[in-house]
């Protein structure tokens, strides 16, 4: 029995992957939570939130921070303050612990739901690989060590995509609208709903922040100050802790013309990618929704006024498309880019400090840009090849593509194919 457990003679490749990856995944989770997340970090995103919602509950001014410092600031609107107010019922230490656990559980549940969206369960060899990758990533490590809300937003993103694919438009709009009411990082997903003509989703998602702000307004002391004090600051390009192209340009003193040109070129590539995705892949619903989501969010992080590396957590649904036969990520440049923004390792080189500092500070921006370039190049190459061969009417997928891999779990795959309409045939 011991021999069968430790060295089964009939182990399949899937069994071997699971036997290797589950211990690695679980140990990585324990290391990240116990060694990194619970002790915390000198960057503390939770304290400003706790102070703000506590002031809100005490009916005191909320938007009083000195925005000229480089410390984390509270930038959520009045509606977001109302939604986050329950955090202020606990003291800061206990509130941080509860908040950390909620974000941790949200990330675990998000991956579980994401696997099921793609037709897999926790029994699949893909499950431990996905958890290992997520808990090793900078995005989740710093989300938890900083005390940020991104874990909950990651879960909200996956729930929204699941509801959107299932055509549960009202519920999808509520979920997305609640995230926008707190912070608008998932706003680009409105375009995915628009492209799919799910109008009620868009309408409800837009209405939710308006409704929460109207509800919070009479309960707050200084709600108007957010719009004249905090909102203009959050729209500015800052030259620290900013991995967007504009942020890197500001840090290195690059000409505004050069920065604008670089953003314009990438924006054009994004438009081309989205057009090709919509024109030729919109009926492959799972692939279209998750890939368009990845392109839009990557473009937001790279091209907007602020992009921070741990935003990359929201690209996880896009990264999982590598298992689909039409994936644009089955090439090494894509994964070079993914390593650039996903790795928690620091590239500060003590032997060559100037070069290491430049590499560390700019790698995320270049990685996001490279990913956008790769997607555009792959889709454009498919389109040009199909046009040369006269088969555009049949789509732009190459004639020979490797199948979905790994094979889907039979029970979940049958549900996906027969019940939800997630993957159009």
UniProtKB/TrEMBL annotation:
Q: Which GO terms describe its molecular function?
A: hexosyltransferase activity
- Membrane spanning stretches: 20-38, 98-119, 131-164, 170-195, 202-220, 250-278, 285-304, 310-328, 335-353, 365-384
Q: How does it sit in the membrane?
A: Multi-pass membrane protein
Report the locations given in the UniProt record.
Cell membrane
Q: GO CC terms for this protein?
A: plasma membrane
- What family does this chain come from, according to its entry? Belongs to the glycosyltransferase 87 family.
The protein depicted here goes by the name Arabinofuranan 3-O-arabinosyltransferase
What is the species of this protein? Answer: Nocardia fluminea
């Amino acid at each position: 029995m011991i021999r069968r457990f430790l060295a089964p003679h009939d182990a399949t490749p899937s069994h071997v992957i699971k036997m290797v990856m589950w211990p690695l995944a679980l140990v990585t989770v324990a290391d990240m939570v116990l060694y990194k997340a619970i002790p915390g970090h000198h960057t503390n995103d939770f304290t400003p939130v706790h102070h703000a919602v506590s002031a809100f509950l005490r009916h005191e001014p909320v938007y009083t921070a000195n925005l000229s410092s480089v410390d984390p600031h509270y930038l959520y609107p009045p509606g977001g303050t109302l939604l986050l107010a329950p955090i202020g019922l606990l003291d800061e230490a206990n509130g941080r612990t509860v908040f950390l656990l909620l974000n941790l559980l949200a990330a675990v549940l998000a991956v579980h739901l994401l696997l099921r969206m793609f037709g897999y369960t926790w029994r699949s060899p893909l499950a431990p690989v996905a958890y290992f990758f997520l808990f090793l990533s900078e995005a989740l490590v710093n989300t938890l060590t900083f005390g940020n809300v991104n874990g909950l937003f990651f879960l909200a993103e996956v729930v929204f995509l699941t509801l959107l694919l299932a055509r549960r438009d009202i519920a999808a709009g509520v979920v997305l609208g609640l995230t926008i009411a707190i912070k608008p990082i998932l706003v680009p997903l409105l375009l995915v709903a628009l492209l799919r003509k799910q109008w009620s989703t868009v309408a409800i998602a837009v209405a939710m922040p308006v409704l929460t702000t109207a509800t919070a307004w009479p309960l707050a002391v200084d709600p108007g100050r957010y719009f004249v004090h905090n909102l203009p600051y959050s729209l500015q390009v800052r030259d620290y802790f900013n991995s967007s192209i504009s942020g890197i340009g500001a840090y290195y003193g690059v000409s505004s013309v050069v920065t604008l040109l670089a953003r314009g070129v990438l924006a054009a590539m994004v438009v081309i990618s989205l057009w090709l995705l919509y024109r030729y892949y919109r009926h492959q619903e799972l692939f279209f929704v998750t890939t368009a989501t990845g392109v839009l969010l990557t473009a937001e992080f790279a091209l907007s006024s602020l992009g921070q590396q741990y935003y990359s957590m929201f690209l996880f649904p896009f990264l999982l498309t590598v298992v689909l036969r039409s994936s644009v990520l089955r090439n090494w440049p894509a994964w070079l880019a993914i390593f650039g923004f996903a790795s928690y390792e620091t590239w500060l080189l003590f032997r060559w400090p100037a070069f290491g500092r430049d590499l560390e500070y700019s790698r995320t921006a270049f990685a996001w840009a490279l990913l956008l370039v790769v997607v555009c190049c792959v889709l454009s190459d498919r389109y040009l090849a199909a046009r040369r061969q006269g088969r555009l009417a049949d789509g732009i997928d190459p004639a020979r593509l490797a199948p979905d891999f790994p094979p889907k779990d039979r029970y979940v795959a049958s549900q996906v194919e027969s019940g939800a309409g997630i993957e159009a045939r």
